[in-house]
Design brief:
2 strands; 5 helices; mainly alpha; two-stranded antiparallel sheet
Length: 151
């Protein structure tokens, strides 16, 4: 008989320990809360398609930015995918370029910083067509971004 009582005692002790520690485990979980705001607080920027076609697309074309060779074909090549020169799709290029614009810090937009020389404040990128922020192509892209309307 003592064995049976000892077994029950261990089981009871085990249940007591579990009951005492469970609130600590459960305490880490709480009721659902509102999801965090998206980066930038959900701020969006509306950019001009017409301005893109007139000023930005020509800059991209002049600098060889398209889906040729190893450049801007998507996939592992990077985040900016562009249409190939022999099948130009300006709407697609506009949408892709727009994804490279930061609504909260426009001058930190990858479409501006990646083609800019490191010495001028750029970020790593295989090709650096803009030596300075005074290059006309850089200015055209930056103006397109600055003209965007934040919502």
């Amino acid at each position: 008989m003592p064995v049976k009582h000892a077994g029950r005692g261990r089981r009871a002790a085990s249940l007591v320990i579990t009951a005492l520690t469970l609130p600590g485990v459960v305490h880490g979980c709480s009721s659902p809360t509102a999801p965090p705001d998206p980066p930038g607080g959900g701020t969006q920027i509306v950019l001009s398609y017409d301005e893109f076609v007139q000023t930005v697309s020509p800059v991209l074309e002049q600098n060889g930015c398209s889906a040729t060779g190893d450049c801007h074909g998507g996939g592992i090549r990077g985040t900016l995918e562009l249409s190939p020169p022999n099948a130009k799709n300006l709407q697609f290029d506009f949408e892709q370029a727009s994804l490279q614009v930061s609504a909260t810090d426009r001058d930190a937009s990858p479409i501006l910083t990646e083609p800019l020389a490191i010495s001028a404040g750029g970020t790593p990128h295989g090709v650096k067509p803009f030596a300075a922020t005074t290059d006309s192509g850089y200015i055209s892209i930056r103006q397109w971004i600055q003209d965007g309307v934040v919502q």
